[in-house]
Amino acid sequence: MTEGLKLGDRVFSSRLLLGTGKFSSTDAMIRAVRASGAELVTVALRRFHPGRPVDDVLAPLAAIEGLMLVPNTSGARDAGEAVRAAQLGRELCGSPFVKLEIHPNPHHLLPDPIETFEAAKILVGEGFLVLPYMPADPVLARRLEDIGCAAVMPLGAAIGSGQGLTTMSMLKLIIRDASVPVIVDAGLRSPSEAALTMEIGGDAVLVNSAIAAAENPELMASAFAAAVRAGRDAWKAGLMPQSDAAAATSPLTAFLAGGEAG
Amino acid sequence: MSAAPPDWLDPLPWLDLARAAGPSVVERSLRSSEPGIREFAALLSPAAASRMEALAQRALALTRRHFGRAISLYAPLYLSNYCPARCTYCGFSADLRIARHKLTPAELEAELSALKDLGIEEILLLTGDRAAVADYPYIRDCVRLAAARFPNVAVEVFPMSVDEYRGLSAAGCTAVTLYQETYDPARYEQSHLGGPKRDYHGRLDAPARALAGDIRVAGLGALLGLGEPLFDLIGLFQHATHLRRAFWKGGVAISFPRLRPEPGGYTAAFPVDQNFLAQAIFAFRICLPDVPLLLSTRESPRFRDGMAGVGISKMSVASRTTVGGYDLETVPSGPQFDINDHRGVAAFCAALEAKGLQPVFKNWDAAYREDTASVRAAQ
Amino acid sequence: MNLVVNGEAYRHNGQSTIADLLRECRAEAGRTAVMVNGDIVPKSTFDMVRLSDGDHVELIMIAAGG
Predict the structure, then answer these.
(1) What local confidence, expressed as pLDDT, does residue B322 receive?
(2) Long-range contacts of A52-58 (CB under 8 A, 24+ apart)
(3) Residues of C in contact with A61 (CB under 8 A)
(4) A258's torsion region: left (phi>0), alpha (psi -120 to 50) or beta?
(5) Cα–Cα distance between A158 and A78 in angstroms, integer?
(6) Does the N terminus or the C terminus of chain A have fewer Cβ atoms within 10 A?
(7) Quick one: pLDDT at residue B238?
(8) Nearest C-alpha neighbor of A156 from the set A121, A128, A195, A115
(9) ipTM of this predicted complex?
(10) What is the per-residue pLDDT across B262-317, written as a single tens digit (0 to 9) for each?
(11) Contact (CB, 8 A) for C22 and C28
(12) Any CB–CB contact under 8 A between B61 and chain A?
């Protein structure tokens, strides 16, 4: 079994992925990315406006050794827009990976399962390695896996909500049945939640707001990195079983006494 | 040269654990929240046998969690005992001079009526191995007749192709049961002396073909006592988990047919006593908590009553293993195996209810199924 | 020629290939994706594809986010 996180034909030794949005400055974002040890970050697509100053993130990100940039289709409201965004992203990043994210409702930013599935089908057909952000639904996870997505990315809670692993029981089912990596994305607030995600068998986590909005994003990024490593090691080490509450009932096996007769 | 079991099935790596797991391994396996093959093998061990009550308690808790207090009931109906196979253990073997019979459509309708009168809503249609007089078209037609009157129709017949399974599904078949009998290729070869059943791999792969052919549930089992029990039980576990992983939309169910001493009958090479049968059932329930586990009337009333709801979630009732046999007009033929629980539906239901269990005859209504609607329309 | 760039009216004073437009806007060809009238233009063709009067052009780049 490969130790690293295997996506498509790439293997990543870091299981912490970062989103690059919401930082106070590009400089703060770059320092957090470096501190996190992340080897994959998601980036957004924006219009370049002639005559307006450009905040170039591409150059400083490209300067980080071994870092892969994956475009995110966030902003797309339906499959058509997401496919277009993915194609533009491929032009810009030169990689077949795309983080597929379609959230039509701007209040809770929850992913649209139907548009996501439709877009994933099209994009897989066009040779993309699709990483779909999705509701924590075990059936949808299998459907996306069946059509060829390179991973599934179920949410822990709504983007930016910091509510943690509200979908824990569903995540466990997804992890149990998946044959592709499960990358829990969105809603994590603390490194302990990232560790817990790894302890229950998650393959990786993607964190953005929890780091960007921390008081000290650079330090928080390295804390998350440590937590992801700790959680992964704990999972590999095999946690001790929890004890069951004993059910006090009368003996169930008395009927076996006396052998085969009767 | 015998076939070899495929890698995903091979019980060999787990036999040591099943033979000699220590008490602490058994304890961890009992408490594991995600038990797998290692835990299953450990729960088959002698050390686990000395923890039977603990195994039973865990099996009870998990059966209640996944099945409530319901016991699903069904009845078997043999359509035909024509059989080209020569299986050493079977009352239908081609070597035996027994009265052979196949139900005509009129006889089938009479049997179905008799079963309906008993309150049965789920039937299992059985035949011998693939015989010219009782081949796929006959079975498909019987399924169609049965599905017009029963919401759940399962078959236990012989390995078919994906297309044949699709045809059965379209005719209204919801489940296919096929026992591998033994997962040990050498024992398999020794036990099946003639006929199409000699094909170990063809039989092994049939449940997968059924699930690929729109059948909802594949019923598995090993004839306990035919081969080395630990080998067969581990093989059965691996078979079940392999199918669940490959066919996430389909389900599996597991039965526990056991060779019991019958006067003048076949003597099991590896007899399994009822204690070990109970242990095996508990182990399956603990490690596959949401898989239906079935017990037939081959077992005694006391054993069936003890195991109902403690691992076992589904049971046959009021069974006949002769061809037909429910409708008193049908000429009875020799049985495939002896029944030990002769209680009728009412008596068995009373026994279940006395244990706080609820007998359930029907889980869902076939009116939701498009094919049944078209069958009704065609009548 | 008159173009619509990123939804706004824009007057292009160059030679009218995409590469020319990018130079005029000070966008880096290697870091900008271009759509003309809804179709993505591969960057290998920026020097060859000519714009026409009234074309709708989108210029997209990577930014922090996602």
Answers:
(1) 87
(2) A54/C61, A55/A26, A55/C63, A55/C64, A56/A26, A56/C31, A57/A20, A57/A26, A57/A29, A57/C62, A57/C63, A57/C64, A58/C31, A58/C61, A58/C62
(3) 62
(4) left
(5) 18
(6) N
(7) 98
(8) A195
(9) 0.88
(10) 666 788 999 999 999 999 999 999 999 999 999 999 999 999 999 999 999 999 99
(11) yes
(12) yes
CA distance A66 to A5: 14
Spatial contact of A41 and A62, defined as CB atoms under 8 Å apart: no
Which residues from B are below 8 Å from A252, CB to CB?
53, 56-57, 60, 306, 310
Strand order in the sheet with A153-154: A97-100, A129-134, A153-154
The span from the CA of A20 to the CA of A33, in Å, is 8
Domains of chain A, with CATH numbers? 5-47+54-239 (3.20.20.70)
pLDDT value of position A239: 82
Contacts of C4 (CB under 8 A, 6+ apart): C10, C54, C55, C56, C57
Please name the residues in contact with A143: beta carbons below 8 A apart, sequence gap of 6 or more: A117
**Given an 8 Å threshold on Cβ–Cβ distance, is B310 in contact with A252?**
yes
Residue keyed to tokens 């908590």: B289
Which pLDDT belongs to residue B136? Answer: 97
**Per-residue model confidence (pLDDT) at position B336:** 77
Measured between alpha carbons, how far is A51 from C25 in angstroms, rounded to an integer?
7
What is the C-alpha to C-alpha distance for residues B55 and B282, in angstroms, rounded to an integer?
A: 6
Catalytic residue list of A: 99
Chain A residues with CB under 8 Å of C59 CB are 47-50
Asked if C10 has any chain A CB less than 8 Å from its own CB, the reply is yes
For every residue of B271-333, DSSP letters joined together read: ---HHHHHHHHHHHHHHSTTS-EEE-TTS-HHHHHHHBTTTB-EEE-S---SBS-SSTTSPP-
A116 to chain B nearest CA, in Å?
Answer: 21
Name the pTM for this structure: 0.80
The CATH number covering residue C31 comes to: 3.10.20.30
What is the C-alpha to C-alpha distance for residues A12 and A206, in angstroms, rounded to an integer? 13
Whether residues A74 and C10 touch (CB distance < 8 A) is answered with: no
**pLDDT tens per residue across span C33-54:** 999 998 999 989 999 999 999 9
B24 interfacial to chain A (CB closer than 8 Å): no
Q: What domains are defined for chain B?
A: 12-378 (3.20.20.70)
List the subunits that have 3+ CB pairs under 8 angstroms with B: A
In a domain, C30, yes or no: yes
Q: Supply B358's token pair.
A: 């609820």
- Domain membership flag for residue C52: yes
The label of the residue with tokens 């077949």 reads A96
Q: State phi, psi for B255 to the nearest 5 degrees.
A: -110, 165
Please list the residues that pair with C33 across neighbouring strands: C60
Residue C48 maps to a domain: yes
